[in-house]
Design goal:
This protein is an all-alpha fold and about 290 residues long. It has 16 helices and no strands.
Length: about 290
């Protein structure tokens, strides 16, 4: 039997970034920090971190700078520890708590990241970036109902694109499909080329067995991104549903060009070839080679 392509999770995209803490008074710049910043500006990030991890009196400012560089290096656990020490030193530093939450997100620690974002909102209830981060964490924790409430609160009636995406994903996970469609439609109205919205719509269309919408959204996504495996999987699914096995084989072949290790694509390609009008081995081989050109 045909194996369903992995629909995966509905995907949310929250563009979050490290916030630099700007103190009310500019700290004196010790020689250690000056040397580290020079190394950083020269692209020598590892050496800059090493410069800031040497012995010396503790400084929250130096620790925050080190954390920023550790984050740039992708050392998210180290950066989290550095930012955590800053929050201990100054519990009311909302930027430090926010940056700690980002590091924890990158470490996949969604539960503690959510708590860190909540702490930011306790300190500054107007920070939409923290609210978006909290919503994203709740989605990863499969707490869609809570995430929906958070994203609905974003913007207070003037929802940003990330908030709309988050709201749509939460509704989709709650199987409130018509409301999710309306939210995705609002995203596409403001950004007709939103691949994320189209990918999630395709997954939802497959889940609800709406093959016409699968075809429409997949075709639209393929026009935007000709190498989208999600679009090709959607088109293959629609072709199988309509018993168009030649088309299904063609789309599976395209998927295999992009993802040669996809077991589902290989399995479905063989079934489509068996069921299609390609009966001679020579024709089947020609089809496979032709798909790679």
């Amino acid at each position: 039997m045909v194996r369903s392509f992995d629909k995966g999770r509905a995907r949310e995209s929250v563009p979050l970034m490290i916030r630099t803490n700007v103190a009310s008074a500019t700290p004196s710049v010790p020689r250690q920090l000056e040397a580290a910043l020079e190394l950083r500006s020269s692209g020598l990030l590892t050496e800059a971190v090493d410069m800031l991890t040497g012995p010396g009196e503790y400084s929250a400012y130096l620790c925050a700078v080190r954390a920023e560089i550790e984050f740039e290096l992708g050392r998210f656990q180290d950066a989290a520890l550095s930012y955590f020490s800053v929050t201990i030193s100054d519990p009311d530093d909302s930027n430090a708590h926010y940056n700690l939450a980002l590091c924890l997100q990158h470490c996949g620690r969604w539960d503690v990241a959510a708590e860190a974002f909540r702490r930011v909102l306790q300190l500054d209830g107007e920070r939409e970036d923290a609210r978006l981060g909290l919503g994203a964490c709740l989605l990863h924790l499969n707490r869609a109902e809570e995430a929906l409430a958070v994203f609905t609160h974003c913007g207070q009636g003037h929802e940003s694109r990330p908030a709309l995406i988050g709201k749509a994903v939460a509704l989709q996970l709650l199987c409130r499909f018509e409301e999710a469609r309306m939210a995705y439609s609002a995203v596409l109205a403001s950004d007709p080329n939103s691949e994320e919205a189209l990918c999630n719509l395709i997954a939802m269309d497959i889940e609800t067995d709406d093959l016409k919408r699968v075809w429409d959204h997949s075709t639209r996504l393929l026009d935007i991104s000709p190498h989208s495996t999600v679009a090709l999987q959607g088109l293959a699914t629609a072709a199988f549903g309509g018993s168009d096995y030649s088309a299904a084989a063609f789309y599976c072949d395209r998927i295999l060009e992009l993802a040669p290790d996809s077991l589902e694509a290989w399995h479905n390609f063989r079934i489509a070839m068996d069921q299609s009008s390609f009966s001679a081995p020579e024709q089947a081989l020609s089809f496979r080679i032709g798909g790679k050109q």
